[in-house]
Design a protein that fits this description.
- There is one protein chain.
- By secondary structure, the protein is of the alpha/beta class.
- It has two domains: about 160 residues, Rossmann fold, CATH 3.40.50; about 230 residues, TIM Barrel (Alpha-Beta Barrel).
- The chain contains 19 helices and 17 strands.
- Strands 2-1-3-4-5-6 form a six-stranded mixed beta sheet.
- The chain is globular, with a radius of gyration of 24 Å.
- The structure holds iron/sulfur cluster.
- Iron/sulfur cluster binds next to helix 7.
């Protein structure tokens, strides 16, 4: 029960209840806030919410998808909170955010947030809330100054970008003495990881109990945010971490989801499977998120089939061995064939593969190799339903491929795969090239993009809407904000240059003042090795 004077808080999710409640990240933040007596938290989704507070102290939002930025603004408007942090006064709530998108590159959304939490919530949320409680009576500007002293807490309004005469970013520096020059992402190193706090039939995966089996991934595929941004690879122990977390949920439901970037890489995963093979779990349905193809065993196929899974998901990235070397995917073609064979022998009926087009150095022959691999797999494992989900490479901050642009050839290559695979009965699930372009615009831009995001609200569900918003801001037609900072009055970052250009390693990056797990010099070394030789390097 919240105590009198508790911080009146709204935790929002930029989608419907059904989607939001299926986000383990959202659930965990909500549970952490709800457990504190000094916080009175209500939830808000785009289609429903708890009864609102009359006045708010805190408004939080977790963002895991770049394109959800405009939804944040719509949620702020619904709560009558000024959109731009500079327009908020002493009586307005502190708007805070976290999640992978904001941790990677918060800059395009920075002018809307008072506080961005960089890293793992287990550490950051308590430190942030304690610091806020200690200064809650102070004027807003002073509260923000105090919060900026907490490790991992980034207060964008206390940092200002400098641009050169040609619009190039020269640096982002503190605006006052005493504010740290850089902010480092915080890493939770405890023995437990997260699991569901809410199990509901209304979730997108009805009544599922989700357990995080691993955090990060040691494979270091050169484009992968899920690996590079969350290093080091962490695994809770079976007896003190995973089994108690699974047991807790299975007291309430018979549906279990094992989550993580690469769950089968948990060193005790085989033991966990063996434990789930017990007769007492006869009526339990177990699903796993994507697994590393090289770790698929006949046992995995058999137990998943027995526990109600119909298919297995593996990411191959490309059918070309050369491309897999370039991206550091340590996976031989034989291992892909073996994974399909084991899945079928175990009793699974489908195999979902994930790949990418438009990767750096990719040629049309590499895409043909992907089509050829799928066709050969179909021949080698008749009766196994194959599907290929394929996306366009999008550069992400804090990864070795952050300097690479989106390649326009990707659009044609998605079509090439469709031409080769569809007539042969292989299901192709391509992600739209156009949306990948918008994603790249957001993932590599700086604060000058904020007015575009503001102008996109109400029309962000169509590609044309984003393009119109960009053109409107370029033409100076964006809405006025009373105390808009200088950088948000500049033209937006140049479209072609941000989305498609290969950037020089000397370039000042919009996220340069925010420290990820690996220093830029290491990322550059990984990038150079990948592009020069295509030879995998040792795990960091
Ligand atoms: S194996 Fe998957 S999760 Fe791991 S680094 Fe590669 S793409 Fe990322």
């Amino acid at each position: 029960m919240p105590q009198p004077g508790a911080l009146r808080t709204v935790l929002a999710f930029p989608s419907t209840y059904s989607v939001g409640i299926t986000s383990l990240g959202f659930q965990v933040v909500w549970a952490t806030l709800a457990q504190r007596a000094d916080v009175d938290v209500r939830r808000l989704f785009t289609d429903q919410g708890d009864p609102p507070h009359r006045r708010l102290d805190l408004f939080g939002l977790s963002l895991s998808w770049e394109l959800d930025g405009p939804v944040l603004l719509e949620l702020l408007e619904r709560q009558r909170i000024p959109l731009w942090s500079h327009d908020r006064g002493d009586g307005d709530p502190i708007v805070f955010g976290g999640g992978p998108v904001l941790t990677a590159n918060p800059e395009p959304l920075a002018p809307f947030f008072d506080v961005v939490l960089l890293g793992d919530g287990e550490l950051l949320l308590p430190a942030f809330l304690d610091a806020l409680q200690a200064c809650r009576e102070a004027p807003r500007a002073e509260r923000l100054r105090q919060l900026a002293q907490v490790p991992g807490v980034y207060v964008p309004s206390l940092y200002a970008p400098r641009y050169g005469s040609e619009g190039q970013l020269l640096g982002i520096e503190p605006t006052e003495p005493g504010i740290p020059a850089t902010v480092a992402k915080q890493t939770w190193r405890g023995n437990t990881l997260s699991h569901s706090a809410v199990i509901t039939p209304a979730a997108a995966w009805p009544s599922i109990h989700m357990v995080e089996v691993v955090r990060s991934c040691p494979e270091l595929c050169r484009f992968c945010l899920a690996s590079y941004l969350t290093l080091p690879f962490r695994t809770p122990s079976l007896d003190d971490g995973l089994i108690p977390a699974v047991e807790k949920g299975l007291a309430a439901t018979r549906r279990l989801g094992l989550l993580g970037a690469s769950v089968t890489q948990h060193p005790q995963f085989a033991e966990l499977l063996g434990w789930l093979d017990q007769d007492r779990f006869e009526d339990t349905r177990v699903s796993v998120s994507s697994v590393r193809a090289a770790t698929v065993t006949p046992e995995l196929g058999r137990i998943l089939a027995k526990r109600g899974s119909r298919s297995l998901t593996i990411a191959i990235e490309s059918g070309s061995e050369r491309m897999r070397q370039v991206v550091n995917k340590k996976l031989a073609s034989e291992e892909i064939y073996a994974a399909a064979r084991y899945a079928k022998e175990g009793g699974l009926t489908g195999l979902k593969l994930y790949g990418m087009v438009g990767l750096p150095t990719e040629e049309e022959a590499d895409v043909e190799a992907t089509a050829a691999l799928l066709l050969a797999l179909k021949k080698a494992t008749p009766g196994l339903r194959l599907s290929l989900g394929v996306s366009t490479f999008v550069p992400k901050a804090h990864t070795p491929f952050q300097w690479q642009g989106v390649r326009p050839e990707a659009d044609k290559r998605l079509k090439l795969l469709a031409k080769r695979l569809k007539p042969k009965g292989i299901e192709l699930r391509p992600e739209s090239y156009g949306w990948s372009v918008i994603q790249a615009l957001i993932s590599r831009s700086d604060r000058r993009l904020a007015p575009v995001i503001a102008a996109a609200r109400g029309r962000h569900e169509s590609l044309g809407g984003w393009k119109q918003a960009y053109r409107a801001v370029l033409a100076g037609e964006h809405e006025a904000a009373p105390s808009r900072t200088a950088d948000t009055q500049l033209p937006p970052p140049p479209w072609e240059e941000v989305i498609h250009a290969t950037w020089s390693p000397e370039r000042v990056l919009p996220w340069q003042h925010l420290e990820g797990p690996l220093p830029p010099a290491t990322l550059l070394k990984h990038a150079q090795e990948a592009l020069a030789a295509g030879v995998p390097t040792a795990v960091a």
